[in-house]
């Protein structure tokens, strides 16, 4: 068999539209196309090491060099000829299988799709969003890879005669939809014939329903009448019969404007070219007012028809009470009133809360009102208006109707007349022979000669029955396989009601249709075709899963990787490609910390040959043994930066030869004290990148020299160390603010470290903490300016909030009659009380008593003064008896002298009396 390059053979795709594509230009030189992933080309290239002068894999024999050279040249020449022949055959070969088509170029297909869509939509001048649905539908059809008739499950090709549903726009083969419609209507006729009338539980005869012969769409089940069965192959718009296929038009299209009536009907037609699927909304513009006709005219798209303004309707609703408050809507189309009110029923017996639009409601109470006759009562259920006349008082006749109509009293019962009923029976030929009776007439019992349905027997039978003989029909049914076997058949043999049961072409299922002639419908079941990993599944027609290729899966490959790297390629068929990622593992050859940067060598295909094989000639090639081996890591050749023992300087050395040494510089590592550095020369340390003291560095022996916090006078007792120092734990004794108690606190608590750079808030917090340390926690012993004791805890400075003193004090009015006990802060605002009328009366009484006492005291004083004067005159009268005038003068002078002494005494007494009165 000749060699076939499967990279040139592209499987035919089931494309119903066959959109033309731009041919892909071949590169200069006739380079063969890239091979497909499923089947690799047999023309493989080898590495330069394995190839000889022209790519041969034959090892050089150890025999004669001249013979070897000639044989090798001849073999290489034949090999090149075979390779060129294979390439030429692969480039010129095209598959002739009917199920394969040439693969369309992706870029050319997109260009063609855009061109066709542009031509179809070029006459549409509406909004892009309105035509988006139609454009998406057309683009999906143009780019679809598989268009299948849902009846026969076969591909719908470009040249096939089709019919498109007007509801779901799904297309089918014309012959398939015709057969589908005819079969559907035939089955409905058969089912209708098999149905018969029956008597229900009340003895009423229920005839079989009328025949409704319609067929429906296989997908959307939209019903069509028999006249709508398609008879001709037409384009989508229905203007042209048998449209010809054009490469740059939509398949099955005539290329003319669609001109279908738009939906909803607006009077305009579709302006697109003949197309499948729904027509876009009408793009025309119209001038129309809002729905309530209250706003000015506005220009909108015809597809929108109406628009709504922001006004609210103010029309009165049907209840006649409330107004419609709904936003703009059609006139005279206000919704029912949703308000509720108490309404009575039609007869007025009951009432309940109902909606305003349900104000007239009917209860279940029987009227039971006395009729006009006075003998009977109304038997109607809740109604409005009068009950009317008694129905038994109307003119009546006997049941058969032969007696004369007469007006009888409603209390009188009309009986039978005794004559023959003589009503026409249901058969329409005979009359009832019974006497006049109240109930309905029975079936006709007259014996009438009748011929059975098959016409073979004639015998008398009751008129109401159908004549049926016992003969069985021996004719074959339309299926041609089974007899009719119907009892007394009238010649219209029914279709076969047995299931076909033949095995379908898929070989898995059986035909479930009724027994029929000709081939069965294809299997309508679906089969799943999975990719290798099972993550991607596509459904194909049952029976075609063997010929269907595995679907292209974009999920990652689930095959266990042969190396330590995960598979980064997608799901595929066949063996996984070799790993091309860097190794990435630690190089254990040199035991360094570098990762191996070489190509992954965990699973390498190694081709070996038998070294002991002795070739007979150039054609005797030793058998190649392909093994998958794990190769060791190559030696690490990366340049690494090597530090000295102390980590002061770096030098680039190969990874295997890197050995650190001392550079001779001072170690200069910061010791643990954080102040001094190591004075030793460069030495080996544990961590060379570290700049702090190592275990091999010389320890610091100096004392602590760090400054203490401001206010602390105690030295640090630790050896030299890095800041900060330990907190000062010396206890300090001090007097509290009130001076009664001594408090103790730690030095580091009163003078904390690191307060130099703190903000005002931190300093304020420190001051509050210091105050808490110096406070004894007892009640302050100081007094407020008012004289009461401070109620705060021991504190510095003046006592806070003296105005909030709440001690109880007594206050009185000016006359000291009214007294009250109030808080100190209230007494400061109002130190005295207001006097009342009783105070005025007491004050007047006291004033009168004072005046009386003053008069008495004045009289007493005058008497006392007179007595003293007399005593004085008695004692000193002998020295002045000679000169009378001088004696009188002396008496006046003596009187003035007494007044000088008496007046202060009187003033003192008055003051004492006034003080006593005020204190009372």
TrEMBL record:
Where do the coiled-coil regions begin and end?
839-873
Q: Which GO terms fall under molecular function for this chain's record?
A: DNA-binding transcription factor activity, RNA polymerase II-specific; RNA polymerase II transcription regulatory region sequence-specific DNA binding; zinc ion binding
- Domain PHD-type intervals: 146-223
InterPro entries reported in the protein's UniProt record? NFX1_fam, Znf_NFX1, Znf_PHD-finger
Basic and acidic residues composition bias: residue spans: 81-90
Region span, Disordered:
1-111
Q: Where is there biased composition of kind Polar residues? A: 37-49, 62-80
Q: Does the keyword Iron apply?
A: no
Which sequence ranges are marked TM in the entry? 898-918
Q: Which GO terms describe its cellular component?
A: nucleus
Q: Which Pfam families match?
A: zf-NF-X1
Alphabetically sorted, this entry's keywords are: Coiled coil, Membrane, Metal-binding, Repeat, Transmembrane, Transmembrane helix, Zinc, Zinc-finger
- Note the PANTHER family from the entry: NF-X1-TYPE ZINC FINGER PROTEIN NFXL1, NUCLEAR TRANSCRIPTION FACTOR, X-BOX BINDING 1 NFX1
Q: Which family does it belong to?
A: Belongs to the NFX1 family.
Quote the protein name from its UniProt record: PHD-type domain-containing protein
